[in-house]
Fold each of these.
Amino acid sequence: MELKPYEIIESVIAGAKLGTQVLDKGPAAWAMLKAVQPFLFHGEHRLNRAARFGYQKVGSGRWTPGELAAYRHDCIATLAFFQRVLDARDGREPLVWLGWPVPVEVASGFDDVAPFVPEAFMAIANMVGTDGHVACLEAVEREGIADDICAMDRVSLGAYLLKQIPDPAAIISVAHPCDAGRTASQLMEYISGAPAYTINTAYTKEDDDVMAYSKNLFEAIAFLEDTLHRKYNWEKFRRGVRVLDEQNRLLDEITIMNQAIPSAGLALNLQTAWGSKITGSGNPELLESARITHKVGQFRLRHPRLRRRVEKFRIIVADMPIVFSEMYMWIERTFGGVVVGDYIGDAIFPPIDMTSLETMMMGVARDRLYMGMIKQAHGAARETVDDLERQIAHFSPDCVIQNGHQGCKHNRALGRIVRDVCRRHGLPLLVMEADIFDKRVMSEAEVKRQLTAFFVENGFAS
Amino acid sequence: MSVFSELRRLAEVPRNERLAAAARAGRPVIGHFCSYVPEELLHAAGAVPYRMRAVGSCGTALGDTYFSSANCSFVRRVMDQGLRGELDFLDGIVFMNGCDHNRRLYDNWRHAAPDTGFSYLLFVPHAGSPACLAQLRLELVKLAGFLGERLGVEVTDDRLRASIELYDRRRRLLRELAELRRAPAPPVTGTEFLALMLAVTAVPPEDAVDLIERALGEARAGRAPVGTPRLRIFVTGSCLEELSHLELVESHGALVVADAICLGARTFDRDVGADGDPLDALARRYLGRVSCPRMMDDVKGRMAYTLEAVRAYAADAVILEKLEFCSMMSGENYIATHELAKAGIPALALTRELYGGEVGQLKTRLQAFYEKLGNRS
Ligand code: SF4
Ligand code: SF4
C-alpha cells in the first residue's frame, strides 16, 4: 500500500469529523449504524477497507445510542488533537513527541505547544484499512530494522519513515513499559535528531518510587521550557488534573459495574477511554464521555434482563487485545461471550491528592502507573499476576484469553505463571500466538478460528 | 603453566575450586546478572559475587517450560541450569532489570524456586539524569539493607569503601591489560581476554586481582600468541560468553583487540573512587561508565566510545553481536551500522543463539566479510 504524506492523520481527522456529525444525530445515528452492519461487520474487503475500522471503533453497530453519545466526545477530543498536530506541521507551534506512557500533561500544560504521541499509530493506522499497519511495518523492514521489536513501536517508526508524522521540536521519551519502547525511543530520537529527555519511571507503586518518578516529570517540564523557550502554565496543569481525577472516579465505577453479573459490558468503552487518555488526559470532553458511559452502565445494572440475553459466559483478556481488528463485539454477537475485564480497559485509579503541585504531579505519575499495560508491565511479575488474580476475583470469568503477542517479550516470558494461575482457579486459558498489530503473523480469520475452537472445546459454544 | 591456561580452565566450568574454598570458609556465593549490579555492595556484605553465565549448559528443554521461543537463549539456558540443580552452589541471586528477558528470569525463578537461596530484583534506572542518580541511590540503599539482613553483615561505609578500593584495583588492572592490546602484536587474543573475564568474575575478587596480575606479568614479558594479525577487530554487543564463538571470529587471521561488551569494557570502564559518600559514588560510576543499549539517553556516548576505541586500538572493522530476540540490540545495531558507515568503518552485524549450532553460516559470513576487508587494503 502506498501512503501519501500524512494520509493516515488526515483520514483520522476526516473520520472524526464524520463521526462527530453522524453521532450528533442521536438515535438516528444508531439506526444508520445498524443499517450498514451487514456491509461492515463480517471481514474486510476492497469496498469496506477504509470505513470498517472507524465502524469498529463505534461498536460495530452493536453500541446503544447512549454509548454512541459518549463516544461523540472522544471523537471531538481526537479531532482537536490531530488537527493541532497538522497545524504544528504547518508551523503554528512546536510539536513535542511523547512516548505513550509519558503523561501528556508534561506538554499539554504549555499554552502553545502541540503534544503528539507517535504510538497513537497503533490505534489509527487502520483508518486506511488493516494494510495501514502493514505499510508502516514494511517501511521499517525495508530500513533493515529487526522485526523482534514489538510491532507497536515499529508501526510508529514506520509511520515516521513514511512521512505520516511531522518532525518534532523535542522528544520526551520514557523507560516504560518494555525493551521495545526503550529501543524504539532511541531510534526515533536518532532518526529525527530532535533534542530529547528521558523520563525514568517507577518500578513499583510504592510512595518513594512514585515520588522519584514525579521528579522526572518536573525535570522533563524544565527541559521543555529550556528547549522551546516557553513557560509552562501551572494553572492549566491544575485544571487538567482536576478533570482527570473526576474522570478517574467515573472510570473506577464503570469498571466496578462491569464486575456485576450480568456485567454492564463496557470493556470496549473502557479501552476507548484508555486510548483517549493517552493523548487527551485532562480534556473535559473525556470527562463528559465518562459521565455518559457511566449512565449507560447504571441503566444496564437497573435492567439486568437486557444484558442477560447476551451474557452467556464471561471472558477476561489477560493481554493486549487484538488491535488490527476488533474482536469483542464479534465474540458477543457470535457466541454471547462478554469480555468483562481486560488488560488495558480495566480502569481502577487511585484518587489524586490536590493539596500541592507536588502531590498533583505524584497523582499524575501514579495515574499512569495504574494505566493498562503499564500497570502490569512495569516491574516484577507480581504486578501482572496480582492484577490477574484481582480481575479473576472481581470479574467472575469463565475463561481467560491471552494473545501471546509476538513482540511482547516480558509477557511471552510469563506464559507458565499465567497458566498456573488459571489452572489454580480452574479457568480454561487460550494462548494464541498472534501479533496484535500485524495481521501477517495471524490473520483475522485465523484468530476467529482459534477463538471458535476454544469456545467449542470448553463447552461455551456448540 | 601459563596463567592463561588456568584462566581458560576456570572459564569453561560453571563452578570452581576457588569458589568452593570461599564457601567452605563461610562466605556466601551470590550470583548476579548484568554489569550494572554493583559487586562492591555484595562484597561489602561479606559475599563472593559471582557473575551469572550459561557456561556448561546442556540446552533449553527445561527452561522452555517457562520461557517462550521468542525469549532470548541466554535466559532460557540459565533457567534450564537452575531447574536442573546445576546452580545449587549459590546462596542467593541478585537479578536486575537489564532487559525484559532478565527481568522475567527473576519472576520465573521465584515461581520455580530452585535451590539457589534468595532472589532479589535490583531496579537500575534507564537514564543518567539527576533524578535517575537519586533513584539509583535509593535502590542501592534498599539492596544494602536487604543484603545486611539476609547475610547478617551490616554494609557500613567503611566496609563499602574497602570493597570499592578492591574492585577499583581489579578494574585498573583489567584496563592495563586491555591497553596492552593496542600493540601491533597484542599479547592476548580476544578469546583469551574473554576467558580471563569469565574467570575473574567467578572467583573471589582477591583471587581475581592475583590472576590478573599474573596475566599482566606474562603479557608484559613479550607474549604475542598470534603475532601481528591480518585484521584487527572491535566487538560490541550484549551477552557474549562463548569462547568458541570468539574463536570463530578470530579465524582467518583476524584478532579481537578491544570491545564494548558486558563481560569486557563495560565491567572495567571507569573507577568508583574513594571520595565522598560511597553510595553516591557507586551510583555515579554505574550510571556514568560506558553504557549499554538499555540506557536510553546515551546513544551518542556509546557511539563516541566505539569510534574512539576503533581509532585507539587501530581496529580495521567492527563486529556487532546480537543474540536472537534481543530487542535492545536490534535498535542499537541499526544506529551503530549507520554511524560506522558515516565514519567509513566496515561493520558486520551477527545474530546468533547462545551456544547455537549455526557455526557453518557464521563462518561463511565472517569469511566473506574478512575477504572483502582484505581486498580493500
Ligand atoms: S505490547 Fe508489550 S512489547 Fe509491545 S509496547 Fe506493550 S508492553 Fe511493550
Ligand atoms: S542478550 Fe539481550 S535479551 Fe538476552 S539477556 Fe542479554 S540483554 Fe537480555
Amino acid sequence: MTKFEPVLTRNTRYPDSEKIATYLAHGGYETARSAVKMQPDAIIEMVKRSGLRGRGGAGFPAGVKWGFMPTDAPQKIVAVNTDEGEPGTFKDREIVERDPHSVIEGVIIAAYAVGANRAYVYIRGEFFLGVKRWIKAIADAYEQGCLGKNIFGSGFDLDMSVHRGAGAYICGEETAMIESLEGKRGSPRLKPPYPAQIGLFGLPTLVHNIETLACIPHIVGRGPEWFAGIGTAESKGPKIFSVSGHVNQPGNYELPLGISLREIIYEYAGGMRGGRALKAVIPGGASTPMLTASQVDVPMAFETLKAAGSELGTGAIVVMDETTCMVEAACRLSKFFAHESCGRCTPCRVGSVRLYEILERIRRGKGQKDDIEFILEIARGIDGNTFCPMGAALVNPARSAIQHFRDEFEYHIANQRCPVSGKPN
Amino acid sequence: MLAEKYPNEVKKILAKYPPERKQSAVMPLLHLAQLEAGFVDRHAVVEIAGICGITETDVAEIIGFYTLYHDAPEGKLRLQVCTDISCALRGADEFLAKVCERLGIQPGGTTPDGLVTVEAVMCLAACDKAPMFQVQGPDGIAYHENMTVDKTMEFIETARKEVK
Ligand SMILES: Cc1cc2nc3c(=O)[nH]c(=O)nc-3n(C[C@H](O)[C@H](O)[C@H](O)COP(=O)(O)O)c2cc1C
Ligand code: FES
C-alpha cells in the first residue's frame, strides 16, 4: 500500500474540525498571515511552479489562470465552486462540511495574489449543513481578523459571503454559476470572454473548485517544490478520490495523483463486494468514459487517463461488478444528463432526451435493429455542437458502454432481454 | 410579508450584493420565503420581484428552473431518494419501491394525511452511503444515509407525531 500522509483531509479527522478554534489550534491561518506580506506576483509564481491543476473536472493549470487576471482592473472577484453534482462525486461535500477554514485561507491567499477584494462561495443548495457551517465559519473568520478590512494588519481587505444554490447541475459550469450568482437561471455564457476577463457583475472573476483552493495554503506554506514532488509528470499533488459502487468500503480516499486504479479499489476501498469480478469502472465522475477491468492498472492522472481513452474528471470512481447490466448503467447515466440539460441549445436539450429514450427502450427489451447506430449518430450530432462542454460530457456514458460492451447491447436487442439478469430490466 | 416577518434576514441578504445588483438576492429570498410553508406563494413572488427590481415572471422563471423551489404545496416533508448510478448499484431502486409500498403510494405521490411526498432524485453527493435520501422540510434539508426500509418507516412515524 502506498504510504501517504493526508494533506487536504488532515483536518477533517480532528473532532469539531469545522470550528475556527480547532483550525487555529493546528496552525491555521498562519500561511495566509505571511502570504499577505509577500509580493502578489511571487505567490502566482509559486502556484505556477507547483503544477496545480483544477480539481473541478477540466484540469486547467491554476497558476496560468491566476496570471490571466488583469492587474489594472480596480475591482475583482474570487468565486468558489461548491456546486458538486457530478454523479459519483462526494469529495467537495466533505471539505465544505468539515473543513471550511482551509478553504477560506486558500481564498484569502488567492484573492490577495490576484488583487480581488470580494469573494463568493457558491454552495450546492442541498448542502444545507455545509451552508450553515460556512455562514458560521465566515462570521468567525471576520471576528478573528482573517476577513474584512485590513486583514492581519496588512492593509488588504477581503469580504466573503455564501450564495446557496437551489438544485441545478449545470450551475457547476463556471459561467452558469456566475449567472446564478446574478440571480438568473443557470444558462452558460459563451466563452470567450472567460470569467477572468468578464465574470460576475461584469468584473474579472477567478473561479475555482473548492478542492483546488484547499491546496493553496499547503503550496504556499510548504513550498511549490514539495507539492510538485507528489504525483506524475503532468499531474501534481494530492487528490481526493471518491469511490462508490460495488466495493467493500466506499468512501473518500486522499492519495497522490498517479496511484493506480487497482490500488485504490483493492487496497483502499476494500476490494470487490462479495469477491465478485470487476466489470467496468467510471474513473472521473458520470461524464467520463468508462474503462473495462482490463484497464484497471491505469495510473489515476490527467495524462494517463487521457491515453486510456477517458479522463480524470473529478476523480470520482464508480465501480461496477460482473452483475451489472451495461445498458442499464448507460441508461441511468443518460437519464441524469437528460434531466439536467439547461435547455439552452438544441443538440443538448433534444439529443440528451433522445439518447435516454433509446437506451430506455433497449433496456426494456424493446430495442430496434438499428438502435446502436442510431445512438452513435445522435452522439456525433451532440459532441462538439453544443453551447457548453456538457454536450461532450453527456455522450460519454452511452458511447463508451457501446465501445466496450457492444455485444451486450446487441444481445438486448436481438433477444429482448438482458444477458446478465436473463430478463428485460 | 418577508420584510415584516424577517426584516433582519432580508437586510442581511441584500447586504451581500452590490446595491445596484439586487437581482442577485432573488435566490436567497426564495429560500427564505419557502422555508416554512414548503413552497413559494403568489404574495412572496410579488414581494420578491419588488425587492429585487425584476418582474414577477423573472421570479417565476427562477422557481421553475431550480429543482429545490416549489410553487405548490405538497407533503410537509419531501423525502427525496437518490436513484442515480452509484446508489442504484447499491439497491436504491428496491429501497424506493419498498418505502413507497409500505406507505401505499407511488413514487412522486403523497401520503393521504399530507405528511410525506416520496420522490426519486439525482445524485446528492452521498454516493458512498446508499441507500440514502434527503428530507426537505420546515427546518431546511437533512441527509439520511445508509438507510434501511425499517429505519425509514421509523423516521416517518416519529415525524408524524412531531410535525402535526
Ligand atoms: C456541465 C458542467 C458541470 C460542472 N460542474 C462543476 C462542479 O460542480 N464543480 C466544479 O468545481 N466545477 C464544475 N465544472 C467545471 C467548471 O466549469 C470550472 O472548470 C471549474 O469550476 C474551475 O475550477 P478549477 O480550475 O479549480 O477546476 C463543471 C463543468 C461543466 C461543463
Ligand atoms: S449517486 Fe446517489 S448520492 Fe450520488
